[in-house]
Amino acid sequence: MKTLVKLGVLIAMVAVSACEDDVIQPGEKGWKMHAWKIPYYNAVIRSYDSEIVLEWNEALGLAIENKMPTSAEAKIFAMVSLAIHDALNNIIPKYELYATGNIAENAEGLTKWNVSEIADAAVAQAAHDALVALFPPSKVNADNLLVECLSKIEDGELKARGIAIGIDAAAAVLTKRQGDPPMTFSAYSQGTDPGTHQANYMPFAVANPPLWPANAVYGANLGSFTPFGIASAGQFRPGPPNALTSAAYTKDYNEVKVLGCAVCPDRTEEQTEIGNFWKGNTSGPMNTIARLLAVQRHLNGWETARLLALTQMAQADANIASFEAKYYYNYWLPITAIRAGDTDGNDDTHGDAAWAPAVAPPPTPDYPSTPATAGGASAEIFRQFFGTDRRSFTIENLPGIKRKYTSFSEFSVENSLARIYLGSHFRNSVTEGEKQGRKIGKYIIQNNLKEVVAFL
Questions:
Q1: How far is CA 191 from CA 93, 196, 199, 206, 245, in A?
Q2: Contact at 8 Å (CB) between 244 and 424?
Q3: Could you tell me if 417 and 354 are in contact, meaning their C-beta atoms sit under 8 angstroms apart?
Q4: How far is residue 204's CA from residue 359's CA, in Å, rounded to a whole number?
Q5: Residues 6+ apart with CB under 8 A from 111
Q6: Domain 191-455 of CATH type 2.60.120.10
């Protein structure tokens, strides 16, 4: 009898619990889902392929890659990718949102067979609106692609709902970031003491105003930006750079002096290729890798949008965080250091007043290296997302030149080393930058765009 009573109480408790959980509210107000429908909607999400997400992502890359400073490019990549992510998750909230709540959308009536009508429209409209607003020169191509994408969707309620969701998603992301100040060049002078960044280091650069004004730096205010995913710009600031009299500094100095010059007999052909392969902005290659992985791993549309958004959030925050540290330390670049090597207080560094790097260095202080931080951040996103460091992939970052990697760590390290071979950063700058990036990537994926508990 006692056993029967205990069993009855247990059944009652389960029944009460089931009633309490019968309605799940994973998003903001207005979005409701009955618990028993969760497996069904998961199946709907899995049925939606990544084709339209990848198509707009590729269009985004073609529109902006290497057409502006790296920080500006990273911000646009992040905002457009987040607009796409939010658009899909305003249809069915599989993952947390960046800028929008599930205001009034209702997934009733969505099936494996019709979800693409609303989802394709939402993705296309969100990507179009965000891209055109952020980079007006893309308008003609973006308009044409939007017309092409929408023309393939049957006219009806789902298409109209999708367009409205896309408009709202893009607008919400743009509104959330509207307080960001412009990223520009600004006058700069912190003195001429050894170890201090000096803005007049490249004669051929200051001869090309207004793109690169004399005695100016770029993005000195970037550390004041609100990050996309980390708590603050200085959250993962590395420790101070090497002292000029240290053995570590001497080693780094001599390394970049013989491997990063315009004509370096000691630099191997492969090192030269690595430098050239990675010398552009980092957001584009990271985007390419994420897209390749999405195809390779057969991710659905929701998963692909999340991977791309996390990747570019990491890129944007890597720029914000590394620039915050750059202007905190104001450490000199190799070109300044090597030209002033005889007056830096270190008897083991020998100056060369005519030394020039393989490529023009960025108009920013050296430490830490932004490309290294950005590479480390996305590599960590990939490791965390796929649960392993071991993934093989091949990318073509230069016409006709492909490089194959067997792990995310491998490409991240190579991207960092490229900065030495280009003569733009000391080894300590890239090493500490990559460490900073890994911390940024890990924090972002563990604290942003997480899977909604009700859908696990």
A1: 53, 7, 10, 18, 19
A2: no
A3: no
A4: 12
A5: 44
A6: no
Q: What is the mean pLDDT of each run of 10 residues along the chain (456 residues)?
A: 38 35 40 66 94 98 94 97 96 91 68 95 98 98 98 96 95 95 86 89 49 78 96 98 98 98 95 94 95 97 98 98 97 96 96 93 93 98 97 88 95 97 97 98 97 62
pLDDT (0 to 100) of residue 34? 59
CA 353 from chain centre, in angstroms, equals: 37
Residue 398 phi/psi, 5-degree rounding, is -135, 145
Backbone angles phi, psi at 191, to 5 degrees: 95, -175
Structure tokens at 216: 């100016």
Q: How far apart are CA 53 and CA 80, in angstroms?
A: 11
Domain ranges in the chain with CATH number 1.10.606.20: 191-455
Dihedral, 364, 366, 371, 374 alpha carbons, nearest 10: -90
Q: What is the 3-state secondary structure (H, E, C) of the chain?
A: CHHHHHHHHHHHHHHHHHHHCCEECCCCCCCCEEHHHHHHHHHHHHHCCCHHHHHHHHHHHHHHCCCCCHHHHHHHHHHHHHHHHHHHHCCCCCECCCCCCCCCCCCCCCCCCCHHHHHHHHHHHHHHHHHHHHCHHHHHHHHHHHHHHHHCCCCCHHHHHHHHHHHHHHHHHHHHCCCCCCCCEEECCCCCCCCECCCCCCHHHHCCCCCCCCCEEECCCHHHCCCCCCCCCCCCCCCCCCCCCCHHHHHHHHHHHHHCECCCCCCCHHHHHHHHHCCCCCHHHHHHHHHHHHHHCCCCHHHHHHHHHHHHHHHHHHHHHHHHHHHHHCECCHHHHHHCHHHCCCCCCCCCCCCCECCCCCCCCCCCCHHHHHHHHHHHHHHHHHCCCCCCEEEEEECCEEEEECCHHHHHHHHHHHHHHCCCCCHHHHHHHHHHHHHHHHHHHHHCCCECHHHC
Contact (Cβ atoms closer than 8 angstroms) between residue 89 and residue 95: yes
Q: Side-chain half-sphere of 327: how many Cα atoms within 13 Å? A: 22
pLDDT for 36: 60
Distance, in Å, from the CA atom of 419 to the CA atom of 430, rounded to the nearest integer, reads: 7
Radius of gyration of the chain (CA): 25
Selection from 200, 210, 391 nearest residue 290 by Cα: 391
- Domain 24-176 classification at class level: mainly alpha
Where would I find the H helices in 90-156?
115-134, 139-151
Largest CA distance in the chain: 96
Do residues 204 and 262 touch, judged by C-beta distance below 8 A? Answer: no
